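Notes, p. 3: input format for complexes.
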Amino acid sequence: MPTKTYYEKLAKETINIQSIPANAMDRIGIPVKELLKEEHCIDVHTHFFDTKCVNSSYMVMRMFKDMLRMRGDDESQSEHIIESAYNKSDVYTDDWNDKLFEILNEDNNARGGKTSMLLIVLRMTKMKQVYEYYIKDASLATYFGMPKEKVLTTVLMMDFKMGWNVEVGKSIWTQIQELKELLTEKPVLPFLFCDPRRADLPEAQENLYKVFNEAFANGSPFFGVKIYPCLGYDPGDYRLWPIYEICEKLGIPVLSHCGGASVSTAERSIAIFEGTKSVTIKGKNRKEVAYQLNDPARWEKVLKRFPKLKLNIAHFGSDRTWSSKEKVSSRKDPQHRKEVIMGLMEQYPNVYADFSYTITAPKASKNFIALLQENDTLRKRSMFGSDYWVVYQEGDLKENQAKFLDMVDDNEIVFDLCRNNPTQYLFGTSNGESV
Ligand SMILES: [Zn+2]
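Output follows (435 residues plus zinc ion):
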């Protein structure tokens, strides 16, 4: 096993920090620059991945959840179905999406149901198409009575190759090139997935640091970093330190999944690095392993080392932690996650949380909104996010986001969630200077 110094040296040799624009305003495309001058709103959590960025197991799993009307982290009823989707031998074929479309379309017609989002996405092979559907069908801007395209969105990538060890139709390199093109045409901010296990891949178009370099230092730069611990790693893995160091220094925003465990590693026992220490995480089933990896307390050590890192702990711990507004003391209680996140907000100046996906859970939303009104730190560090398009599992997104924002029922807080706070998170410097 190579040592810590080996990786630090490798990262330094590979990441070309001088080539990354030091100022956030020089890391955005012209469409974003133009939009920032006008009236706009921000959806800080959106995915535009198409069928070529994922594999058939992912879509099959989403399909079952859709059919059974299951919430993102509600798997108790049909865990065996989900497990079989995970364990389904995945022989990659170019036309798997056409085959799946046929099955799903037949089923959908038979049930006389409304066309599901999955059917729509299964026909899309370009991220731009998925983006355009968002603008047409669910743009946050329409809630504010603005023209549909006046919304600034992120583009959060997903790394199934490392997490599930599967092939997808577009390599990470191809996805990067596609997003670089998209950001010259549309007001989007791409976030690169950074899986520490990629540090071990020798090929230039797969290796973590070389891919980072391509995304951030070569022409139309990317804007942020996406971390997804439950795909099988600790966010404090030392192979990510060189990335965090640059992010902290240049004010590059980091976003980490911290919600349900729909998508996770399928391992029951997995060796991870907590810092430089090798640790094995075990669980009775997939969910148990994912739950441990998703723990926001894993960020404590990262923030100790990089205290000015701009971090969005996405989904705010999932709706379970918000099932009560009250404080919970036991660390084992799932409700405790919101306390951990709020504790990190109190302690570190650049820690934020988005309420994406969780907006569709009425009780959780009610408790969250009540606390927003009383707690100033929470109010200044919380952000609106939709989790487009995976959130369609919970019904029509446009309706759901309107329901949530109506429930906030305070124009100033709505403005903080959809504009002020995400602006500070995305464009403020690590030193807290605003734009
Ligand atoms: Zn998401």
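The CA atoms of residues 48 and 131 lie 6 Å apart.
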